[in-house]
Design goal:
Oligomer: heterodimer
Largest interface: A-B, 89 and 92 residues
Largest sheet of chain B: 2 strands, antiparallel
Helix content of chain A: over 70%
CATH architecture of chain B: Orthogonal Bundle
Order of helices and strands of chain A: HHHHHHHHHHHHHH
Strand content of chain B: under 5%
Number of strands of chain A: 0
Number of helices of chain B: 12
CATH topology of chain B: MetI-like fold
Structural class of chain B: mainly alpha
Distance between the termini of chain B: 47 Å
CATH topology of chain A: MetI-like fold
Number of strands of chain B: 2
Structural class of chain A: mainly alpha
Order of helices and strands of chain B: HHEEHHHHHHHHHH
Number of helices of chain A: 14
Distance between the termini of chain A: 43 Å
Shape of chain B: globular
CATH superfamily of chain B: MetI-like
Strand content of chain A: under 5%
Radius of gyration of chain B: 23 Å
Largest sheet of chain A: none
Number of domains of chain A: 1
Chain lengths: 294, 286
Amino acid sequence: MKRGILEKLTVWFSWAAGLTLLSAVSVLLGYLLLKGHEALNPALIFGETPPLRALLLRERVFDGLFPAVAGTLVLITLSIAWAIPVGISTGIYLAEYAGGRVKRALDAFFDVLAGIPSIVVGLFGFASAVFLHRHFSERIGPCLLISSIALSFLVLPYIIRTTQAALEGIPRDIRLTALALGATRLQNIFLVLLPKSLSGIMSGIVLAIGRCAEDTAVIMLTGAVASAGLPRSLLSQYEALPFHIYYISSQYSDPAELTRGYGASILLLFLCAALFSAAYGIRKGLTHFTLYRP
Amino acid sequence: MKNLREQAAERAFLLSALASCAITAGILVFMVLMGLPLLREGGFLALLLNSWEPYRGAFGVLPMVAGTLAISLLSLLVAFPLSLGCSFLTSGIAPKPLRGPLRRIIELMTGIPTVIYGFVGIFLLVPLIREFFRHGSGMCVLTAALVLGVMISPTMTLFFCDAFDRIPSSYLKAADALGAGRAQKLIHVMLPTAKKGILNGVILALGRAVGDTLIALMLAGNSARVPESVMDPARTLTAHIALVIAADYESPEFRSIFTCGVVLYLSTMVMTFLVRYLARRGEGNI
């Protein structure tokens, strides 16, 4: 009799927990859409400026999100560009070359790297910017370049892990066929193994893009500012979508600005949701242990 | 010729692996070096256990350590039952056709940016807490912990689901053969077998909670005092770094945030190694 109660309680408890979490997140999304839906129009991004002229960089956008969106896109592109070559080659080394103790040691390093809080990476970026400013050139300060490098440190483990997991998941017969036909190790990697694991690697990259798009802690320390216009050079400060949202939440001056904050949140949310579902769609088989080391 | 290229490629791969390691170690070394002048004066422990009163020359980070602990542990308390329940649902309790979609929704939830949790928290939860408890501004440990708990739940759920998925199907079939119901199978077979995986998930989620900046920064009120109740405002180590960053480069305030950085780095490192240790010990028996 007592057992029956325990089981019923478990079932009740599970449904209650599931509904609580789902409703918490639906309230979050619903509230955002309710408050922000009226801001969702071209004026949210381009303000009073005609969209075409803004896109062709003929006119500066003052009261729209265009500079923030552009800043985020440039930032993502740069960070991913730094992280991909290093990440993929490290993944290849881990999966194909490293053995035994070396691999265990490297594994430990990348687990630690994956666990470092993003604000600490941001602090590192900021401190190195200040260091470079004092000892090398007056022109270097917190800027787009520093931000993108710091962000690439943050997403490096994602790319390393997905590359490694994708390569290690290749079955033995595929792995040995080309070698048996006389291919060298390198040819085997580039002509057989990498193409075979491309989808896994891609999902890691997409996930890394999502992480770059949403991260706020790193960029608020390394050069994102509230108003800078379009990013002009690698050494200039820039605007970014997540930082803009944070800034509005603490400094908004009128309801119109607040509504724009809701609009920006919806924009960022859809961007991240799209990237995440893409990452999961590309490769379902990768476990969350490779993807979600915090 | 070919041999040369092979070797060059291997060198290049090794080099990037070493570079990634150097980044990991370099961040810690840099933090320690930058914080050194202040560390030398009083010692690491004194800095850790002192209060934060910059006007009286005290730059200890104790209030921030307390704030981080209070907020992250409380958020774990919120997230653990939620995640356990959700993982029960997706690995056994919910009807089969619902499980897949449910899991996909939870996977999607992990992609919600933290700044959005913070943004909605400020305008939705903070006024509610203020009205409900009629105490302070509504920005307090409780508010931050609630939002943080919801934020880490999806990830924690997925870790738990993974732990359940790794149970050999022979165990489950044996339970089925003995006539166990869905809930019985969960309580008596799956839960005891996946204990270690669940502990792993909790530690990893704790690491996320400790490392999160935006939610605490936006919702916890940021007062640099040890919170006495969950209704008090508090400041976490992460928020402290973000707040003090504007100060003068040579000032002791600025130096002190590197102590925070080192503490954060080392504590997440300890958690990482704990997870690795548990995983290695568990290799033999699931």
